[in-house]
Amino acid sequence: MKKTIYLAQAIPYVNAAPHIGHALEFVQADSLARFWRLLGWDVLYTTGTDDNSLKNLQTAEAEGLPTKEVVDKYAKQFEGLKEVLNISWDIFNRTSSKEHFRGAQKLWSLCKKEDIYKKKYKGLYCVGCEAFYKPDEIVLGKCPDGHSNIEEVAEENYFFKLSNYQRYLERLIANDKLRILPISRKNEVLSFIAQGLEDFSISRSVERARGWGVPVPGDGSQVLYVWFDALTTYLTALGFGNEESLYRKFWINSQNKVQILGKGIIRFHAVYWPAMLTSAGIPLPSSEFVHGYVTLEGQKISKTLGNVIDPFELVDKFGVDAIRFYLLREIPAWGDGDFALLRFKDLYNGELANGL
């Protein structure tokens, strides 16, 4: 019998067009999938888009367009990377689909009743990260990841009792029952857990969400908070909550469930996600591969700085093989790496064209 392996790539927000940083993760994940297929393994590789985030809603409002229209527009561009970058995913899962809604609501319903409760809350919310932060984590108006769009939010939400899982998560990660690579990221997660885990919000009001998102089962006043919703994509891409044959084959019955993600969302994947799955009685992923960021000429890529590189234009000018080659050769698998056009051209001429 073939060895089965499920490779799940993190899903991007669709509040803007894809940039070179997105291309890196697609190419990394695709290369892993192709390598494992060469070994004769039965590989299922999934990705998709996070359609329900507050960032998407705010972009739509800024553009004066319906949220669905904006989400569909950018999701189509991300889906277009399959052909442009020669990506071999098997399933592209959008969180705005009815099938995903059913699966996300099923996960909520499976969680232990004592792990979910409702309370009034006031906190600092980073729109860029879609996360709440403590006051001492906001320095000079910015979150730890450098985003400055911080809002003070006060409302009644549902919370997940993450504090119940502190010792469990410490043992789980320290003993590599959930393997996090590289080890520096594993240590980062253990350090975060050691500071003490607080319960986290898993819903937001329909008013603040403008009615956009997955309704909370049994409470029409709330929709699922983006991370409870979006993380479920790793299950719903396999039909969880719908036709579940792939879910049984690649999640329940497979020992090899690998997730690939960026360092900025490690807290949600390595802490929140395993706690949610454990509460619901669902097996955990086996490994999480965490990559760094792509900078441009030493600067962080950002729409504000106007230094976003369009992968479609790059491929059109230099060809897909050259772009894939540079991303895999020049950008460290586990760390940050720089995209410098001069360096790219040097490698292109020196190693691909061989000086011709």
UniProtKB/TrEMBL annotation:
InterPro entries: aa-tRNA-synth_I_CS, Met-tRNA_synth_2, Methionyl/Leucyl_tRNA_Synth, MetRS_core, Rossmann-like_a/b/a_fold. The keyword Aminoacyl-tRNA synthetase applies. One of its GO terms (molecular function) is methionine-tRNA ligase activity. Belongs to the class-I aminoacyl-tRNA synthetase family. Residues 6-148, 154-355 form the Methionyl/Leucyl tRNA synthetase domain. Keywords: Aminoacyl-tRNA synthetase, ATP-binding, Ligase, Nucleotide-binding, Protein biosynthesis. GO terms for biological process: methionyl-tRNA aminoacylation. The keyword ATP-binding applies. It comes from the Bacteria. This is Methionyl-tRNA synthetase. The lineage of its organism: Bacteria, Candidatus Curtissiibacteriota.
